[in-house]
Amino acid sequence: MEPDVSVESGCMIRIVVVGIGEIPGAYLRDYVSLVVSHKRVDLSSVSSFYTEHQKSPFAQQPWSTGSLNFKFLVGGAPRSPWDDFQAQRKIHGLIGLSHCPTSPDIAATYEEFIAICKAYPSALVKRMLAFFPSDAHQVEQEEKKRQHLIFVPPADKQTLELHMQTLMQDMAANFLMEFESWVSKAKKRRLCRSQKIIGDYCLLAGSPLDADAHYNTAIELARLTGDLFWHAGSIEGSVCAHVIHHAGHNEPSFDENVKLRYYEVIQLYRRVPAPAFELEAILKLSRFLCRRELAKEVSDLLMSAMEGAKSVVDPSDRLVLYVEVARIFSCLGYERKAAFFSRQVAQLYLQQEGQWSASSALQVLTLGAKTYNVQSKSTLSERNKTDKEAHGTDDESKELLSSDADGMWSTLQMNVLNEMLSAAVRAGDYYAAWSSAARLLRGHYPLITPSDQARLANSLITSSKQLPRGARCSDPCLPFVRLHSVPSLPHQMDIVNRVNGKKDWWTGSAPSGPFIYTPFGRGNDATSEGKQEILWVVGEPVQVLVELANPCAFEVFVDSIYLSLDSGDFEAYPATVTLPSNSTQLVSLSGTPLKESTITLRGCIVHCFNVVTEHIFEDINELLADVAKGFSLSDPFRNTEGPKFRQASNPQISVMPPLPLLTYQIIGGQGASVMYEGEIREVLINISNTSMVPIVEAHMSLTGKQQEHVVSMGHSALQSALPLLPGASIVIPVIIKAGQISTVPETLHRQDYAGNNPPRVVKDTSPLLVIHYAGEAAACAENKQKEGTKVPPGRRLTIPLQMHVLQGLSLVHARLLSMEVPAQINTSDSDLHVESSDSLVKMDPYRGSWGLRLLELELWNPTDVVFEITVCERKNREGFEAFKIADDSVECLYPSTRIDREYSARVLIPLERLKLPILNKGYFNRMNDLAKSERQTRAELNLTIKELSSRVCVKWSSGRSSIGELSIKDAIREALQASAIDVLLPDPLTFGFRVTPKLIEENNVDCDTLTAYNEFENKKDKDVTVTASCKGSIQTHDLIPLEMLVRNNTREAVTLSFSVMCRDVAGENCLGGEKATVLWAGALSGVEAEVPPLGKIVHTFGLCFLVPGDYTLLGAAVIHPKNDLLGSPFKMASSDGPQTMTCSGPPFRLHVSGHFSN
Fold this sequence. Notes:
Number of strands: 49
InterPro entries: Ig_TRAPPC9_Trs120_1st, Ig_TRAPPC9_Trs120_3rd, Ig_TRAPPC9_Trs120_4th, TPR_TRAPPC9_Trs120, Trs120_TRAPPC9, Trs120_TRAPPC9_N
Organism: Ceratopteris richardii
Pfam family, one: TPR_TRAPPC9-Trs120
Subcellular location: Golgi apparatus
Distance between the termini: 163 Å
Low-confidence stretches: 388-407, 520-530, 639-645, 744-759, 779-788, 822-849, 877-886, 921-932, 999-1032, 1123-1136
Helix content: 25-40%
Protein name: Trafficking protein particle complex subunit 9
Number of helices: 27
């Protein structure tokens, strides 16, 4: 049997085309293509080369419409044993191709051609074509005149095609003349077989009518002689002549006639029997009827041919049969039947020994791989393009075929891939072997046992060792790779759009709230409805998260994996991954965009099993979609222990031009600052410009709900460093203060006293420091006025100031202490003791005691460190606002107090620092209607308490660098709320006494009352009331002139009535009654006077002491209702009479000595 047979095969002139000498492969392919392109030569073009030596036997030669048909056998062909039965089976021509530059010895080359011609004795026309000859070759040819040698001069392709057309027309004329000569000699024979052969040559000469006449004669003679074999051959020739003559006129009656006559041929061959010719006849008829409307009849013919193949003994004949049946089924569109018979062809090839047989089997299996949906991706892409151009196949049937192949043909697919693997290994095609093993393992791992999986892995490694280093394959193997997500730029690299002409372009762009990322801020833009848009910047590293899966029973080592993009303007960084068996792993792949563009993620380039492959994200998405529809069972991400995740869409990625980029580093460590409650610390932040663009503008701000923890920021340090050039860095100081932890200190204190230590209380806070910065605006000055001019965007750096706050020094409680201590009476000559009227100790003139006003703070140290406590007073409000670690705006009141760990201590704070300097006018206008003004008074008092309580602070220090401040404002306000008026408001009047200075000079009185008086005069601004005592220089029976000073601490004039009292040690009045011991001169009671605002008056009187001892002088005054006062220690009169106010001063102690005392 012969391949590629058809009804028209009888008119084909067979010509062998061979290469002579040494010819490069590229040149040989070009020369062969020039020759084989002339398969049909019209008789009209042959007439100029044709010479009629005698009358032509082809009386009905169609010179205007006829043609000669050539069938080129490249590389040679064996002689057919049936060339005497059918003339078209003979080799009628021989063409030798030679390349003169590589075969310069033209004589030796020609001798080689002559030797080849001897192998084809039936060749009637011989030509040796020598391309690119030299002048020496031309001269040699002219001298020796070689008959079959033709030189083809060097020329371009078009000229060579023209030369070749001329040569083939000349060769066709020679064939025609040779056929005429042969027919003329054999025409006299009237035998059946001779007439049949003459008809064959008439067909080869392009004269179908002459051939039909001879065939009819042969048919009649064969029917008479009963020569069934030649009878069938004559009918075949007659049908061929009819088909050629009626070419282009396809009528149903003609097709029916051809079919009936070929059925007769088949029956004749079956009766001979001649199974090979019978099968050829069936194949010829099937190819002639190969149309969709006759598909059923053609299929029945082919299946009957397959039944007859059982009687074929020659394996080559069976091989040809399977090939032709597969080709015809493929032409009908029966892809599955064609693939089945292709597999039969491959199995016949595999049964033979030799590398070429295995290579042929691999090629056949590769052709049928598409039907089984196991084709290579390289052939798949090419066939997809062809299918899109040709609309012969229905898309719906393709989809059905693909789904059926995936769902039902898994075992068949595995068998096909195993056969391809075996054929590739035998053929030595290690690339195809690696590809087949990869497709088998990747597509059918659920149905492969672990041992077979290991065998395939070994096949991959073995095949890859035979491939060149870095070999690439279009078919991916393991692992499975899918896109997990494309993270947006971190908030340290946020991009903020700038509007041309807007100065504060960053307004409204800072994140709100305590979190760096809030899900409510994403997805509200227009791009959220479609694909997610990702912004990348040229020159800045980016990352993409991909998920790798290894569903097999062996470990997979990935030598390298990196991103694959549709644009080449991207530098990808490889990563190495080791995947255990049956596992998944999330891998971050990074790279750097190099050019401004819009790019799309294709997939990943994976170097695994020593071969580089490309894993496309869309392919794995289609696989998972088929799994969701139930078309496939191979889901590598389903039964693994990896993280569950929904399928991510491929986002749109826009690459922006280079932008400035700030990075930060917290000096001392990137972790959270571990601080105690109230601790104040300076944090140094190193900010660097890591881009190639200078920063010309920057703005620093705070955001979030914990801004109170940041005391100050280094605005000036940042602004002074601008412009910040590429590679430059600055250090910005930021002062932070730890907040308080919401706990119940009393409970903790009690538990500690009980011996049960509570767990350590902590609190994490993170204020956000935001820096907006940008480079130079690229818009020109002339374009700034145009609307919509684009300006390069700015960026936002968000720095979380993380604080890990531990429970520190705790305030258990605070209370106001008011104590009474018995007064001390001088009994010896001691130094004068000077007291201010608002001092810590005050004497009750009626009970002879001292009053103490203290704020007691009980502190508890639950930590494992020691604290040093210092009570300080801030000098002014500005000093408090601009707090620094080295704060010089505070004044220490008392030495520091040490509190050991797990101990408590009490700190006393004097309250004289909280006194108001004077009374404002508003305090004198609420006397008449106290109830109506109570609310307003209370509000003003609260404001005053709030301001004045900020002046007292409790600082602590621990170790060398840990300092802080205890928050006591609320404690002071709460403690003073009930008795704030008594503590804060000053006395409206202050009193002082002194001995007349003239008397001191004359009598040389050794008394410090003058000093006390001078101090009183110098401290008018501080509301100081002076008391004094002498050192025994006042004697009995002397009239001592004294002066009482009354000062008005209000801003209004005061009308008052004052008096002076003197008491002895027992507290009895010494100025009146039966036991009076002191005589006086001047007014001591009921003295009316008016004191100007912030002014004073002096009242003079004299005292004569009759009994030595210690005496106390007291001043008192009654303020008349001209002005209404409010405050304490004022004592209101009865509401029935006129409203008056009584004020009393501090005691003035005197020691009186007798004349007899030393």
